[in-house]
Automatic annotation (TrEMBL), chains A, B:
Belongs to the anoctamin family. Its main location: membrane. It is found in: Membrane. It is a multi-pass membrane protein. InterPro entries: Anoctamin, Anoctamin_TM. Pfam families: Anoctamin (PF04547). The keyword ATP-binding does not apply. The keyword 4Fe-4S does not apply. This is Anoctamin.
Length: 624, 624
């Protein structure tokens, strides 16, 4: 094992951007800390005004390997199992001949992020007025961020690696084939598990739409009666979305295992923003900041959830008021030839739109505030709670109008138009705001910087949009899944539009991650988190909506004209219950884990338990 | 640590009963094997015909302690955590000063049963014609049982311990108080986890009925309109049965942890009847008989389940045929004063009863045959699969008639009568067949034996009824839970009858275990197994039945006379969906484990993982 420091040339992994008003002594003091106690390589760089506001951070291979143990990184062991990385044991891991490339890009960034977050007060090193650093349990960088002395900390792309990744990913024309898979391990090695899971899910979902769209087309063409056609498609829809999610769970568990994410609860480190009192972790017995789970649960059940429910009710009442005003106005100004009347009729919806947008924004801030306040220990738990809050509100808000049109107005033309317009807005609007506009901006900025500084990659990175997490990406998918599945019995063609859109969007999303946003810090994940539940819920709701849609369809009522209203409804209630039971049975029948993964996990657990026994045995022998 | 063999006097733990035609050489050969390779103490005893058909098995404390390690017994460690028992480390366990009483009765029996089951062919010891022992992977005792040379293997009671247990259990008048708990740890120490869980659950369930019966009474007395009364009680019923089961899960998880049952998958040994090919266990890497999970799954999904479904359909058609014949007969012979007519009217139900009883028996044998054939590795898994099969059929069969009366006949008086008679039959009939009759038999047999052999406890034990597992005990509870909860909105008084019955039945059940049946081999369990799901399912079904009952009630229809039929049904469908959502929310909100238990488990897992790391570290250091 050769870990000669001199081999490593300086390579920037992460950039710290200071505010220009940050005092020089703080900057140089932090620089010192990074060099001495964190043992990083550092280098200052200046902005266009010649202010030294950028601190580039690099690290030797040795430093990164040492850190990898702390971060709980798992690697493939010689017996092809996944084991915690141990520096002492490195020869027994695969690919340990070339130490430079032993850790992936994402793993290196995890090590650096962890050390940065854990840079704590160290009273012995303090040699200037540090009274502003009030909290000795809070990370230094987090405190400087709160004081606006540090504006941003972000990793930057590795140009060579990125080029290589792009060429086999979305720039490869072959990758558009149905039987082609995205280079998921490469994506994971570069962006980390959380982003990789998103792209894997997106791909999986898109491929699942093929049979769906095809089946929809077939049932539409074949000469079925409306009732039979709708029912066949509803049952197909039910089986499809259940099987789709169950197979996804298997895929996801397999990935999660092969990426060493199966015991996340021990790997994940506290977030930089996590607050707690110094205490003993009841599980690891290590000194740590601890925040009682009970407090968090109380906050959730007695404050957060009631607020969410109130918000949804508020949104619902607003919608009801809007519809009632609209109806009144429609009746009053019913002359279709009068421009005045048409204008008046538009007033309520304009008013509604104007009120709704800021309310949604306010809700978003409330959700973020509440999640911060709940004080989650790890990033995945924080994200999953924030996502749930945003999602519940989003779901209620977005589908409320669709439900209204479908079941109260029973206006199928309106519903159809609404679906189309939502799909198009979803597709076009997203691409414009998320990809094209920022990319244009980037090209322009690049030209300016190129002229001034030459080809300085780090500075271009600084000008990019900040990475905001995967929430909006998942929402886009979820929204589409909703349009496809909730009303599919009546509008099976929606799946086609979705399919075409997704084939393109997979690539534009990839492009966004590589060029439009700042590179994200890689984050652990053992799946798509709360979205799995969200998709599952939608699957159950879709059984109800589809059956309701069928029951309300005039052609179907005509088909059952021998039935009394009561019998007719009872029939559909029975069908609905039967289908939900069928769904649950399918969910139970398909195991969530393949036998191989289940065995591998059991084996790991078994070996640990045996090791614990041996340890105790050895200890008791020693005492004797 | 003193483990002097001479201290232990001979005490019979288990009796092997040979067939009288079993050749003497086999008996003495087995006796030899038990003494030499299993290191047990043994002693022959003869029956009334002076044939030596009983082999009493005992063991030294040292032998039992040595065996306890293999069986994966867990004990309380000095730091109050639960740890795998290690003989070398015994000083660090609590109560290790008195070695005689260190292992509980149940643990001792587990050790002996394990060794008996694992007595395999040992070609070196074979010294007579053993060609009959064809399968070298199958346990010897199991093979002798199959050949009917061994009739039974059963543990016998420890008179002193049993007396002590009885006196603080059902013989203690205080134990009948509401705030009194049964001595659950003592029961576990004597009968093992599986039986203890049954009694704990029975107690828990009985106590849960108190508020239920009380609330039912209150809503019945207060001057509500029928709709309000039914709805209030239905909602209460929903909350009650959800909360009841959720709290049970917590209680059960706590017990399971404190009894060291949390990693059953590694503790549980293969059943004696388990067949497989010698191979390497993929988890422990130990040589073992292995049977691929896939084969078992295929057998279940492609043979067992379809057969079950067919059986239920058959039973259903039989019932439908019965009802249609009954209706025809009722119409044809409608003279209430003619005895002939009355007699004719009874014919169909007599015929139905005659057909149903053997069919049920046949089904039971099919279920046992299928479960044997599925070849489950461990006893809990075998039992859980058998239970599921029996239960599903039972559920369908038993509640089918109730459903028919409730929803097709809509004959509330019939239904009410049916409920009462079922409850009474359930209570009285069970007690007669399960407790009183066998007890009488026991008293008589005791007298005969006493006269002949003096007070030979072991021989009395042999004459008792074989222990048949907990299936019928759980079914009795389940049945009652069904009567209470499925139709509770209309007949809340049923709970009172159940309450009175249970207070008595808890004691008669305890008596049954102590005196009526042969002592069961203690069996591991981490809860009530498949019954948890069965009770949960019933909770969901009860929402549907109650809402349907309310909707069908004439007084309620009258209350909503302003509604059209369609609106009326839609209203109840909405209510039903809303209530089921409420139920799911309650289930999610109440965590299945208390924080303490969750932490303790995590801690155990964490320590094991750390031990594994250390072990690897030590190994890699040693190599260097």
């Amino acid at each position: 094992m050769s870990l000669d420091d001199s081999q490593s040339k300086f390579e920037t992994y992460v950039v710290i951007e200071f505010d220009s008003k940050c005092p020089h002594e703080i900057k140089s003091w932090l620089n010192n800390r990074l060099k001495t106690s964190a043992e990083f390589l550092t280098q200052f760089a200046s902005n266009s005004k010649e202010e030294e506001v950028f601190l580039y951070i690099g690290a030797t291979t040795k430093r990164l390997l040492k850190g990898a143990e702390n971060v709980g990184i798992k690697k493939i062991y010689r017996n092809k199992t996944i084991r915690d990385f141990l520096l002492e044991d490195i020869e027994n891991f695969e690919n340990s001949t070339n130490l430079e490339d032993f850790l992936s890009q994402a793993e290196k960034l995890k090590v650096i992020e962890y050390e940065l977050n854990n840079l704590k007060h160290d009273f012995e090193v303090m040699n200037f007025n540090e009274k502003f650093l009030i909290n000795k349990y809070d990370g230094i960088i987090n405190q400087l961020k709160k004081m606006d002395l540090i504006l941003n900390v972000f990793p930057i792309h590795d140009k060579t690696e990125l080029k290589r990744l792009e060429s086999i990913w979305y720039k490869n024309i072959k990758s558009y084939g149905f039987f082609q898979y995205i280079p998921i391990d490469k994506i994971r090695n570069y962006f980390g598990e959380s982003v990789a899971f998103y792209f894997r899910f997106f791909e999986f979902y898109t491929k699942a739409i093929y049979p769906y769209a095809f089946f929809g087309l077939v049932t539409w063409i074949l000469p079925f009666s409306p009732f039979n056609r709708f029912m066949i498609f509803t049952i197909f829809n039910l089986i499809w979305n259940t099987v789709f999610l169950e197979i996804w769970k298997r895929t996801s568990n397999e990935l999660s295992y092969s990426w060493g994410m199966f015991d996340l609860e021990f790997i994940d480190k506290p977030r930089a923003q996590f607050r707690g009192l110094p205490s003993i972790n009841p599980i690891t017995s290590k000194p740590e900041l601890v925040y009682p789970k009970k407090n968090r649960r109380n906050k959730k059940y007695f404050v957060s959830y009631p607020i969410i429910i109130l918000s949804i009710l508020l949104a619902f009442f607003l919608m009801m008021i809007y519809y009632s005003i609209q109806n009144t106005v429609n009746l009053k100004f019913d002359n279709p030839e009068s421009y005045m009347h048409t204008a008046f009729k538009m007033l309520p919806s304009i008013g509604y739109s104007i009120i709704v947008i800021p309310l949604n924004l306010i809700y978003k801030y409330i959700a973020i505030f509440l999640t911060d306040w709940e004080n989650h220990r790890t990033q995945p738990s924080y994200e999953s709670n924030l996502t749930t809050k945003l999602f519940v509100f989003y779901f209620a808000n977005n589908f409320m109008t669709l439900f209204y049109e479908a079941f109260f107005d029973r206006n199928y033309e309106n519903l159809s138009n609404l679906l189309v317009s939502m799909l198009i807005v979803n597709a076009v609007f997203n691409k414009l705001t998320e990809v094209f506009a920022p990319y244009l901006k980037k090209r322009i900025v690049k030209k300016i910087i190129d002229k001034r500084d030459g080809d300085d990659y780090e500075k271009q990175a600084y000008s990019l949009d900040k990475y905001e997490g995967l929430y909006s990406d998942y929402v886009t998918l979820f929204e589409q899944y909703g349009y496809i599945t909730l009303f599919s019995s009546i509008f099976p063609w929606v799946a086609f539009a979705a399919l075409v859109n997704n084939i393109m969007e997979q690539r534009s999303d990839a492009f966004k991650f590589c060029h439009v946003n700042q590179r994200p810090f890689p984050s652990n994940a053992n799946g798509i988190g709360p979205w799995k539940i969200a998709f599952e819920l939608l699957g159950i709701v879709s059984v109800m909506t589809n059956i309701a849609l069928i029951a309300l369809h005039p052609d179907v009522r005509e088909y059952f004209k021998g039935f009394s209203d009561a019998e007719y409804i009872c029939l559909f209630v029975l069908i609905e219950h039967g289908l939900i039971i069928l769904k649950v049975i399918i969910m139970i029948v398909i195991p969530d884990e393949s036998e191989a993964v289940a065995n591998a996990k059991q084996r790991y657990k078994y070996e640990s338990l045996e090791a614990l026994k041996k340890e105790r045995l050895a200890r008791s022998m020693k005492i004797k």
